[in-house]
Amino acid sequence: MTHPYIPNAEPGVRAEMLAAIGAESVEDFYADIPAELRLDRPLNLPEPMASEYELVRHMRGLLSRNTDTTEALSFLGHGCYPHHVPAVCDEVNGRGEFLTAYAGEPYEDHGRFQAMFEYVSMMAELLEMDVVNVPTYDGYQAAGTALRMACRYTGRSKVLLSGAVAADKVSKLRDFLSPDVEIVVAPVGPGGEIGDVEVDETLAAIYLETPNVYGVVETRGRELADLAHAAGALLVVSTDPISLGVLAPPASYGADIACGDIQSLGMHQSYGGGHAGYIATRDEERLVAEFPSRLFGIAPTTVPGEYGFGDVYYDRTSFAIREEGKEWVGTAAALWGITAGVYLALMGPEGMREIGETILARTRYAMNRLSAAGAWVLHGDSIHFREFAIEVPSADALLAALRERGIFGGVKLDDRTLLVCVTERHSKDDIDRLAAAVGEELA
Amino acid sequence: MSGHAGEPFAKLPVEPKPPLRRFHQARWDEPIIFEQSRPGRRGISVPAAGVPAVELPGSVRRAEPPRLPEMGQLQVLRHYVRLSQENLGVDNAIAVGQGTCTMKYSPKINDRFVSDPKVAELHPLQPEDTVQGTLEIYWQLERILTEVSGMHRVSLQPGSGSAAIYANVAMIRAYHASRGEGRQRDQVITTMFSHPSNAACAKTAGYEIITLMPDADGYPDIEALRAAAGPRTAALLITNPEDTGIFNPRIAEFVDIVHRAGGLACYDQANANGLLGITRAADAGFDLCHFNLHKTFSTPHACGGPAAGACGVSEALAPFLPGPTVEFDGERYYLDADRPQSVGKIRPFIGVTPNVVRAYAWAMTLGAEGLREVAEIAVLNNNYLMHKVLQIPGASAPWDRRRVEQVRYSWQELSEETGVHSEEIGIRAADFGVHYWTSHHPYVVPEPFTLEPTEAYSQEDLDEYAAILAHVADEARRDPDFVKGAPYNQTVHKTDQTWLDDPKSWAVSWRAYVRKHLS
Questions:
Q1: How far apart are CA A215 and CA A156, in angstroms?
Q2: Cα B77 to Cα A87: distance, rounded to the nearest angstrom
Q3: Which domain holds residue A368?
Q4: Cβ-count burial B73-92 (b if 16+ within 10 Å, e if not)
Q5: What is each CA distance from A106 to A52, A160, A393, B303, B490, in whole angstroms?
C-alpha cells in the first residue's frame, strides 16, 4: 500500500518521475555519500501501526496510563499553571492555516502578522510598555535574555538575582549567563520578599520576580528601581501577566525590562508544553537594539486605511548578521503568542480584574483553611497571588497520603516544605476538600 | 437564470481550467482588534471568588485598568478566523518554498492525541506513576532517535532547533571544562551554509566564531578547516547536506581533523529528511547532533513554534545532557535528576510534550521501511522539482553538484536581464497561493531561493509550483515593473517598509502607533 503521507511512493508515479529526471533509481541521488557512511541494514525500529485506527488504539493504550488533572484534584503550580482555557483559544490555535504555517512573509501571511501584532499590543497595554517581542521559548529564556540585554545595555557583567526564584530557573540562568556574567543572589527576607540588596556601580541589573517562587507579591519595586537606577543599573522584573488585572505593572514602579511566561494566558499545562516567553521594554532605540527576537511593526500600504506589517530593526538579528547579531533568533513559540492574544481579547480589562481578584481571594482563603488545618503557612502576613508555601512534618508523607485521596497536594520544595497553587479553577469546595484532608493527615 | 446583464455563464460542459489557479488570498480588510472595542462587552466569563475579597495596598494595586479590547465572544472568534484565512500553511498551500525548514504534512490524527486531556491536562510535576504513558513515549522516542542517529542518548528537552544547537554548545563547553580545557578552547568553527544559529548560539555561549566559506566546488573549504583547527578549537558545528542541498562526501574527514585537534564535532541535522535510514551521525564520527522534530519528524511549524529539538550525544557526552533524563528500570519509567555533570536546565521541565507525542506517533506510522521511504521520496521530489526549475530560463543551481533534499537556486541571470530581484519574484509567486523563501543572509548565492519539497507533496503539486515560477519568470521578462508592483492578489498591498527601521516611525504595538502617528 502507498503510504498515505507519501503520495509519490506510488510505484507508477515514482517510475514516471525517475524517468522524467533521467535517473535509474533514487540511489543515483545518494551517489555522493561514501559507501563507508551508508547504513547497510534497515533501521532497528518497532513495527509500525498498519492503519490510523491501529495508531489510535496504540496511543490510547499508552495515554490511558496517565492520570490527568481533571481526574485528580491538583494543586500543582511552580511555573506551570492550571488555568481555564477558553474554547475559543483552542479553536483559533487549532486552525490549520495558523497551526501548519511557517513564520511566513508579510503579504501572504498577513493574518499571522496582524494576530501577532495584536498579541504584542495587548501585552503592551497590560504591561504599560511600548515594545514587546514575538515570543521566545519560555519564561526561563525570557529571563536569561532580559538579563543579557541589561548587560549589553549597561556594558556591565554582574546581575543580582532575587533569592526567591525557582531552582530550575536559576539553573537555566547559570548556564545561559555563562561564562561572562557574574550572578549574585540576594537573600530572601522574613516575609518571603527579596531581602537586603547591595548595589554598586558594576551591577548591570537587579532581577526581581513578582509574584515570586513562594507566591509572594513583592512590595518594594519602586525602592529597588531607584536603587538600581542610582547605580546606573536596570531593574528587570519577571511577572505573570495573568496577575496584571489587579497588580501594578512593573513599568509603573520603574522597571526597565519586564519578562515572564505566558502559559497562563490560554495555554494548557500539557506536561510543560504550553510555555512561551515575553520580553518588554519602553520604546528607546538603545533598548530595542538589544532584543534578539523578531519585532513586528505596523506600516501604511498604498491603499488608504489598510494596515501592513513587517520586521522592525531586522538588522540586529542573527538572521541578518549571524554571530554579529544579538544572541540568536529562530522558531520559538509564536502560536502561543497568538493564543495569548485571543485570551486577552476575550477577557478584556474586566475579565483580567475579575480573575485577579478571584485568585487573590481564593489563595488567601486556602492559606487560612490550611493554617486552620494544622499546616504552618510560610510568609502568612505577605500578599500572595496563586501560590503559597506550607511547612509540614514530612512533605513526602503528606503528598503520598493526599494521593490516596485523589489529590495532588502541591510541589515539594524541600523535605518539609510544599508549594500549593490555587487558581480560578479551584472552587471553594475544592479548597475545603484539600484542607479537610490535610487536617486529617496532620492530626 | 442569467449572469450579469450581457454576461452569459460559462458554457457547459465546463472548459478545462487555465494552467495556473485564479487565486485570490482572503481580504477581510479586518480592523485592528482595538478598533472593534465597545466598553462593557465581554468575551468570556470568569468564576467569581465566592470567598472574602482581598484588599490590596495602593503600592501594588494596578491604578488604571489595562486598555484591552472589549468584545463579544463571536466577534473575537470571527476576527481571528478571518485572520487565519489570511495565512498560508501546509494545510492550504503547497509549502515547498521554505527550504531548510522541511514543511511536510503534520497528520491531523496526531493533533487529536495532544488535545486529549491525557496530554493537555497533565502537570509536569505530577507523581511519576501518574504519567507512565507520557514517560514511555519520551523513552520510546529517544530509542527511535538513537537508532536513527546512531548516538548513545538523546535529550528531548530543547524547545526548538536553535535551542538544541545552544544545548549542544552548552554540553561542548561543559565537556571541555571538565577536562580543564574550558578556557583554552575558545573557538567554534562553522560553515557559511550551516544555519546562522550555529554561529549565533556559539557566540552567545562565549565562543569566537570561525566561518568556513565554500570552495570552488561548493563544499566547505577543507584547507580552511585544517588551518583553523587547533588547540583553541572547541568544536565544529556543521550541517550536511548544507543549505545548498549539497552533501559533503568528505564529512568523516572533517570530523577527523577536528578530533585530531582535540575538538568535538557537532552535526546540525536540520536537513536530515533525505537521510533517514541512509546514513547516520554516529557513523561519520560525530560526538553530538540534533534533529528538529518540527521539520523531519512532522510536528507543525505553528507560525514559528512551539517546536521541539532533540539533542543526540555519544557516550562520552551523555553525562552532560540537560536534566532530568527519562529512564526505565524494566518495570517503570522515571526521571533522573541526579546527574552532577549535567548542564542543567535548557527549558522548564522536560520538553515540549505535545510535539514529542506527535513525533512519536508519526514515527510509529512509518517504522524503518517507512522512514527510509520518507527519505527516498523527499530526495526524488527534490530532484524532480530541480529538473523542472532548471528548465526555466534564468534559473540556476550554482555548483554543478548532486542535491539531496533541497536546493539553493539562483535567479542571478534573470535578475541581471530584468532588474527583478528574488524577493520580488517571491511576492509575485504568492499571488498564486504559494510561499517562497530566499535564503539566510548574507546572500552568498546571488538572488537566492531555496526549495525543499519533502515527501508530502504530489507530483502534481510540484508541477504546479514549477509552473508558477516559470510564469513569474516569464512575466519578469515581459514586464518587470508589473512583477515589482506585486502583490496583487493578496490580503494587503505594498507596504511602506521605511517605517520599520526608523526609531521615530516604527511602532511595535498599537499604543506606540497611536502615540507616534495618531496624536
A1: 31
A2: 10
A3: 73-77+351-442
A4: bebbbebbbbbbbbbbbbbb
A5: 36, 40, 58, 12, 10
Three cell numbers at A211?
509574584
CB contact under 8 A, B512 and A130: yes
> Is the Cβ–Cβ distance between A259 and A146 less than 8 Å?
yes
pLDDT at site B4? 63
User: B231: how many CB neighbours lie within 10 A of its CB?
Assistant: 11
User: Do A287 and A382 reside in the same domain of the chain?
Assistant: no
Cβ within 8 Å, pair B350-A9: no
Here the cell at position A110 is 498577513
CB contact under 8 A, B351 and A273: yes
Q: Minimal CA–CA distance to B161: which of B308, B318, B284?
A: B308
Last-in-domain residue among A342, A376, A401: A342
B399-426 b/e (C-beta count within 10 Å ≥ 16 → b): bebbbbbbbbbbbbebbeebebbbebbb
B86 Cβ under 8 Å from any chain A Cβ: yes
The dihedral sign for the CA sequence B155, B157, B163, B166: negative
DSSP category for residue B183: T
- Same-domain status, B382 and B492: yes
Please report the DSSP string for B330-382 in residue order: SS-EEEE---TT----SSSTT--HHHHHHHHHHHHTTHHHHHHHHHHHHHHHH
Other Cβ atoms within 10 Å of A200 Cβ, number: 10
What are the chain B neighbours of A172 within 8 Å (beta carbons)?
344-348
DSSP H or E run through A350:
helix A334-372
The pLDDT assigned to B166 comes to 98
Q: How far apart are CA B519 and CA B513, in angstroms?
A: 9
Look up the CATH number of the domain holding residue A356.
Answer: 3.90.1150.10
| CA nearest to B455, candidates A198, A35, A2, A121 | A2
The amino acid sitting at B149 is S
Whether residue B187 lies inside any domain: the answer is yes
What length is written for chain B? Answer: 519
For residue B395, being part of any structural domain is answered with: yes
Does residue B379 share a domain with residue B359? no
User: Which of A15-19, A106-110, A368-372, B508-512 comes out lowest in average pLDDT?
Assistant: A106-110
The reply to whether B290 and B143 lie within a common domain is yes
Subunit contact A80:B147, Cβ cutoff 8 A: no
Q: Is the pLDDT of residue B16 over 90?
A: no
Q: Which residue of A has its CA nearest to B92?
A: A97
CATH code of the domain in which B292 resides: 3.40.640.10
Angle at B306 between CA B302 and CA B307, to 5 degrees: 95
Nearest to A112 by CA among B36, B74, B26, B354: B26
Nearest chain B residue to A328, by CA: B200
Check whether B5 has a pLDDT greater than 70. no
Do A392 and A272 fall within a single domain?
A: no
CATH number for B447: 3.90.1150.10
- What does the pLDDT look like over B307-366, one tens digit per residue? 999 999 999 999 999 999 999 999 999 999 999 999 999 999 999 999 999 999 999 999
DSSP A135: P
Question: What's the pLDDT score for residue B9?
Answer: 74
Nearest to B274 by CA among B315, B236, B316, B240: B240
Residue B2 has pLDDT above 50, yes or no: no
Q: Are residues A262 and A311 in the same domain?
A: yes
